Amino acid sequence: MGHQCCSKQKVKRGLWSPEEDEKLIKYITTHGHGSWSSVPKLAGLQRCGKSCRLRWINYLRPDLKRGSFTAQEERTIVDVHRVLGNRWAQIVKHLPGRTDNEVKNFWNSCIKKKLIAQGLDPNTHNLLSTNYKHNYNSSACKLSDHSLQQPTSTFTANSQIYDISTEMKAPLTPFPTIPPAPDANPYYPPLVHEFSSILTGEYPNPNTQAFLECTASQSSIGSVPISSSTSHPSEFGMSDESFIWAGGYEPIQSILPEKKQPEQQVLETENTNELISVGQNMDASFETTNLGFDFVESTLLPCGMYYNPNPMDQLAWDSGFLQEKK
DNA sequence: AACGGAAGCAACCGCGCGGCG
DNA sequence: GCGCCGCGCGGTTGCTTCCGT
């Protein structure tokens, strides 16, 4: 049975041939898609409009990013999914060049299994029972596990800023309980409660200390430094890859930050691809601050905790400079 | 080399929503 | 208000490729 939209036509189904692709590309790049239902006829295709639309959006669009997901994209997906659930169309808005279908497939084929293998319920992102985890361990994804070894999160405050305001499934419930520390869970690396103490700690690499002191000393609310950073680890001879966040799992209660102008928060992140994309995400988030929501600084943690990341933390998270890799 | 199961991914299906007459 | 239509979305299917035996 064909689609409703094309029940009167004889339509082809299944995989698209290169010739069909060519016809569709040629038509849309020349005329735009307009009404999808009329595209097949006008483009000379024996397909239904729905199929044309899907083919264009998921495969032929020129702005698509091909190739496997990066660790950063993976973290973004997890972060946003934690807030939105399976709303792929919303999730994919935070992954330029990706399609909802692609993200959905990636989630189902890989991330979901990774989360389960780590003892996390992929639906709720909360801890699973031991038995459940055990039962799924054997089916863990065999794809690259870079994200398991090196946290590279953007922490996507942008997506959560926007989506919390408009689409959050449940209200934030700050700190019902503090869960035990998961074992080096890459999806939920610890956050910055001990950030300020780190600043006064001792580091084998003096550059680390210098960088931390320089970049995170602007101001603070409570024990949480609120700062903008104009520095980059590389300026202190630090390699992005040489540091990872590996602290304890100690969430911090959200403290509403001072209202800050978005421009003040923009990081200079041109030095690595990783940080460039951080900057892009941050820029996107700043746009949403125009909406005037009070919780623009909030983001979610597992188990209903939340925390307000600031740009310094964002950078810290991504470059992983807070502690040296063992 | 052959086979079977698992994984990956493109495409389909059905439903809900919004615009319009 | 109602029905129709087109579109977009999320879930699912099924084909292809990969990988271990």
TrEMBL record:
Transmembrane segments: none annotated. Keywords: DNA-binding, Nucleus, Repeat, Transcription, Transcription regulation. Its main location: nucleus. Residues 8-60, 61-111 form the Myb-like domain. CDD domains: SANT. It is found in: Nucleus. One of its GO terms (molecular function) is DNA binding. Gene3D superfamilies: Homeodomain-like. One of its GO terms (cellular component) is nucleus. It holds the Pfam family Myb_DNA-binding. PANTHER family: MYB DOMAIN PROTEIN 55, TRANSCRIPTION FACTOR MYB26-LIKE. This is Uncharacterized protein.
